[in-house]
TrEMBL record:
Pfam families: S-Me-THD_C, S-Me-THD_N. InterPro entries: S-Me-THD-like_C, S-Me-THD_C_sf, S-Me-THD_N, S-Me-THD_N_sf. It comes from Pseudogulbenkiania ferrooxidans EGD-HP2. Gene3D superfamilies: CV3147-like (2.40.390.10), CV3147-like domain (3.40.1610.10). Residues 2-154 form the S-Me-THD N-terminal domain. This is DUF917 domain-containing protein. Residues 174-353 form the S-Me-THD-like C-terminal domain.
Amino acid sequence: MLQGACFFGSGGGGTMISARHLAANFRSGDYYPTDKVRVVDADEATDGDCVMVAYMGAPDAINQVQWPNGPVEAALAARQRLESQGRKLAYVAAPESGALGFVVAGLVAAKLGLAVVDADGAGRAVPSLPMLTYAAAGVPPTPAFLAGESGLCVELGVRMPPPDGKPQEDVSTVVEQMLRPILTNPQFGQFGGLAMWIMSPEQLGGALPVRGTLSRALKLGRALQGGEVRTAEAMLDFLRRELDIKGKLVFGPATLASSEVTTAGGFDLGKVSLEDGERRCTVLYQNESLLAWDSAVSHPLATAPDAISYFVEGDGQHVFSNGDLSGDDHGLDPAVRGRKAAVIALPAAAPLRKGLILQSFADELAQLGYLGPYAPVDAGREGA
């Protein structure tokens, strides 16, 4: 599941390194009361309330975590709040598709005796909270609980002023702006466990329109693990044949050439480059890949909200996040330097192509210097 989720994460959603560190300790014992994770469809989640749980912060800072203490503490705070209201926490949901997001949701559920909903808030990974379907559905994002590995837990409540006729800022945007600086506190160290968007069964359907994402990650991961998918063309064929996803090869296979990354404000900011003769493909990311350029083409190869993912050919691991491609010196990991990789774009789910979510992606792209329109990868260039 981690391999499949990593591919769907658009270069983000946490690293395979961090997800594997957490998964390595998942066994029944003193910490986990069970070694099973129960997953339910969104329509089956009717026995109580659900909360979104995650790690928030810079992927590079999360890589060495072995126990999900932060997300567990945040979920416990949410459960205690519900119990004080005579309600029951029964489910957790991942924020997005990604290796870390899926494993955290599963481990928190196993630790606390809950179930995981087979859906997430985007179908890809995203750099900010307003890009998630929870926000678009208008589910109140607070109370939000942010817990550090040290045990420090911050509760955030936001009450917006009455409308005065002017466009009002989305509450999740305000929550994001307030949570990010907290992560820079030394007791957090650029990351923390997050629990927010507490949802009743009646709210869950509208908040999670992107369904079956854990199941599809598991299906793709099994194909990768079993050697069924070893080339970029085989990946595109599998996506189309088994998952009804019309991905597009936008560059490569070409040689992985370089990686640059800096960490600031809870984000890894950087770019990955691939070379094919005189041509160079550059993928720009803010935790997640948002924009891909070809040095020989005057328009972007792909833009968010479409996912931009890597498939690395040859022996060894085939799927990587941006963080996995980065070595200890924040350059390209020597283990992947020179390997052939393809950049594959995946069409965004319909809820990401409109309203608050699409505008949030446009705002992030503007920060990267792209001021043009969203160009859907599944539209012809003339119709984009």
